[in-house]
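so the lab meeting is tmrw and i was supposed to have these ready like two days ago... anyway. pasting both below. for each one the top line is the aa sequence and the line under it is the structure tokens. i havent really looked at them closely yet so no promises
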Amino acid sequence: PPGAAFAHRPSPRRGSPVHDVLIVGGGPVGLSCRARRSTAEGCSPSRKTRTFAVSLTMIVATGLATPTITNTQADASAEVRSPYATSESNTSGAQGEHRDARCYGVRVPVSVARVGKAHVYGELCQPRRGDKTSRIVQLLVPGSTYNHSYFDMPVRRSHYSYVARALDAGHSTFNIDRLATGRSTLPPSSLYTLDAGVQAIHQVITKLRAGDIGHRRFTRVVWVGHSLGSSMAWAEAQQYQDVDAFVLTGMSHVVRQERPSTGHGEEIPFEIKAKDDPKFRGTVSDPGYLTTNAGMRRFFYHEPNADPAVIEADERLKDLSTAADSTGPTLPPEQSPSRSIKVPTLIVVGDQDPYCTTGVCTPESMLAHERSYYSDTADLKAIVVSDSGHSVQLHKNAPRTNAAILQWIATVVS
């Protein structure tokens, strides 16, 4: 895309091509992007508050066993509805925003360990191209305290919506709320596990391929994750091997330890119990559900390159997390579930994101740190987006970022 610079490094595999690495920026870009602290007024690192990196829920999933659900468990488990739940509809709110596409709101039935019967909500959008509709579907998996609005932010959709850009490129999207978020089932937090979330997404993938969602069999599935939605991809690949390519944004195995502060020395928790937040009061009573504290969404952004209207919408649309989202020990590379990935994989991070390795963040440093956590067959590539924070696709340079992602997908999936 315009404004993008490519660099190359030799592949460690004999006879294989070089790894292309890309840095995308909102202005002039080069091959070095110095990791800078936020210059926003009142935002400075502090040791007096909890570690921001931990608050961003860096999940390093351990080996996840596939449990069996008995008929008794499935029958006995009553579905817990989301506070967002509405009656089933053949169309979604996205339909009015993406007029050149067919969009449907879908509740996908799943059955997972401990939770039993549940549903995953998603919005399936297919481009209108006569009678021809792509057999490729991008499965969009948002991060912790986000729902499907992350990939379809209702602020200048032509600029910030990844769904809109994917449709323009001719790809279908299935934009989901993970189990225990949004319009999907909210099980008792004591029963929900990361394993259950991964199982549910696997069942969604199976149904996409079988034609059980939208009455079209998709032959190729590309997982596009953000943050927790990226780390869940590692666990899904370890168990199922049913995805054709991965785009992993806002996540790595190495994290810079940075801490947010109000700038006045106050210790304000990054997350609070959702039942104590005005948005969820009266609809979420389970004390195990969490959400971000008021004003904390801005720490997902590099504010000099962020639209205040987007941050405000992010705050308004924030969602839930549970303790299961933020547990799991860091494993050495040879034991990491990400080594199970055997298909093309693209890592995308902002240079201001704590997950953008350490010190000076460049595409080369990302690959240097991440290469050992993936198999050679993953054909790993990296994009570093300049002047962008954790929510990398919601900054002012989002069109370039999304164009670079879609360009990569076009080269590896057809």
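ok protien two:
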Amino acid sequence: MANEEELFDQENTEPEQPLSEEDASIAEQSAASEDEKKDDLAPSSSEDKGAALRVDGSEPDDGRAWYVIHCYSGYEKKVRYNLEQRIETMGMKDRIFDVVIPTQEEIEVREGKRRSIERHVFPGYVLVNMILTEETWFVVRNTPGVTGFVGMGNDPTPLRPEEVQHILKQMEAEAPHVKFTFREGERVRIVEGPFNDFHGHVAEIDVDRAKVVVMVNFFGRETPVELDFLQVEKA
């Protein structure tokens, strides 16, 4: 089974097509039809959220699934805004339920100070929970900033439930991810603890435990010191 990173590499390279008069007419008719019945069919926002973001990755049995759209890196929030506006104005709330940018809180150290940043887990990609039809495909695909669906041609590939579960659990993790970009042999400075302000070089990196071993000169002898990622910075 392909993991989500492999799936995200299958980006669609189809060229962006201008909106034809026929497509515009279809969109207008769809919006008018949906406006008449959305009051009866559209679930409340709280129901949308609960149904779309199930932690176990399962979906209600109405044909909805999670799809991946591609956009230019750095424009994810703009694309989400544009798509949410189109969902509202074109009466698609009962078929396009949620638009999610996979992010993760990350802690980094700069000049001895910790700061929290929001990192995009998959830069250039946005998740859409929807029932795939010709109309919903049209609305999403022609959103400004969207360059295509992940999948083959006009047949987008839905995410597997276990892939959705993994992504959502990453986003809901209580402990923030610690950013660490050092390499073995790189010179660093210890910024807290008994060896505060000591300099040394990275000897080992344990990503799973978020630990690093730094060799420092202590009383004229190279001494290994195990530290948290947040206790060191580039020298």
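from a quick look at the 2nd one: The radius of gyration is 23 Å. The longest strand covers residues 64-71. will dig more after coffe
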